[in-house]
What does this fold into?
Amino acid sequence: MNFFKTDLETLHAQLVAKELTVEELVTATLDNIAKIDSKYQAFITVMDESALAQARALDERGVDPDEILSGIPYGIKDNLVTKGVLTTAASRMLANFVPIYDATVVANLKKHGAIGVGKLNMDEFAMGSTTETSYFQETKNAWDQTKVPGGSSGGSAVAVATGQVPFALGTDTGGSVRQPAAFNGIVGMKPTYGRISRFGAIAFGSSFDQVGILTRTVKDNAYVLAAAAGHDDQDQTSSDRPVPDYAAQLTTDLSGLKVAVPSEYFGAGVDKNVQATVKAAINQLVKLGASVDTVSLPHTKYGVAAYYILASSEASSNLQRFDGIRYGYRASDAKTLEEVYVQSRSQGFGPEVKRRIMLGTYSLSAGSYDAFFKKAAQVRTLMIEDFQRVFADYDIIVAPTAPNVAYDFGQNTDDPEVTYMNDALTIPVNMAGLPAMSINAGFVNGLPVGMQLIGAAFAEATLYQVGYAFEQATKLYEQIPGGEH
Amino acid sequence: MAQEPLSKTEVEAVASLAKLTLQPEEAASMTEQLAKIFDLVNTLAEVDTTGVKPTYSPSDVQNVLRADVAVDAQQATALLANAPEREGDLIKVPAIIDEGADK
It folds into this structure.
């Protein structure tokens, strides 16, 4: 079975009414993955055994009628560690790595009864915007298999957009949940920095990384975030603010909502058709009662440069742990300890990861620290202040998620500068730690266009309200890739 | 102050700091790609950051403390299963000091 036309509330009602057992649901989900995923290659690992065991145990215990995720199958990006289940971060470095604990977000969902059915493909260590840097496989866009799925959470977005799972977890360091969600026409939420614990998320840029949620609909997303979020003693950056009941606060009336539209997000380099589609969607928000003004976020254009210095610096530090000693890849030809480090890392990491480690190492080195790392961190402050000025007067910022729709494979891999500019509209949010969500705004040449909703810190509820009102007015989620289902 | 592109030798020195070794063609393309990234990075020089405090984390959480309690996770065997090479309960690595060099 697929999940194109069943949202979480429908599935939950069927499970509670025993029209469907959890085992039947999980079996049908696994059968569908076995049937169609060879076409999309979203999954690196399918968790047949553990998923079925969990399903049977839940059937025995009984589905919890007060717990919407009880018995619901879902997919997990392969940089979130899962106890006893291969976790690769799509790298040769971790091609044989079996973690001994569950990431807190995975444990939280398990507590709510959700059942992980597989681990999803991604760019290696989440570094990339097309999922092409994966060591293992090339994931295809749900709407056109000749196009990239976006990244780095490409497998997560495609698994949801092709109806293989009702929801998936991703991570977002510079746009890695929102951009693939945009490219596949689904909902992708990157919550506020600290909203979801990152314990067990394989670290990339620790002052940016945040776990995110990909779903077909806004309401489903709201349900999953409520279960996934919360303070964790194992992650000292996780917030202890109470987690609201997001789904209960949804509304279709946007009267009084003050929307800011940043002119910099509609500049050169942003496809004209993407601009037109998002502007039409903004007009829809006005029809629903919102007022709209154009604003300026003047430091936007420096975001990409500052981000690549800071995130790569943090990555070069985080990835030092991969040394071929305790776990992960060890070069077989290394004769000395130094050779174990150098050969294992040189053979275990792919080109994009090495490039970022190199940029980060250089940025942090004695001679360039001030001109690179410190300068970028100062620009980060100015970008945060840009956002603060806007949020003093407005409830939400609305813009495109990506400058273009999904493009062909192999387009930008030789020129990192061009590739990195693809993230120009998603990076600023990570610089400031703000929540942002991508939602389908329409189509250009049959490919989905993402509209990005950006909120003040911990204003996820506002993003869900606006997204829900738009979604209910347009019902774009009813459009299904291929139209064959 | 514009950052000059790195020479191939400088690129190799950075690689060595990062415990990486680059194949000759890899070093050449890395040199070229880093030069392009530096072009991008040089645009930051346009921004006046005089007196601007750097931000190293967007979090407002500060100095979180917890009780210092030892926990026996009973996970040693599972942990060791991930080691590339073992001898009993120990992780095996090549010699740190090359004994041949001292002779």
Observations:
- Chain B touches chain A through 53 residues (CB under 8 Å).
- Chain B has a mean pLDDT of 88.
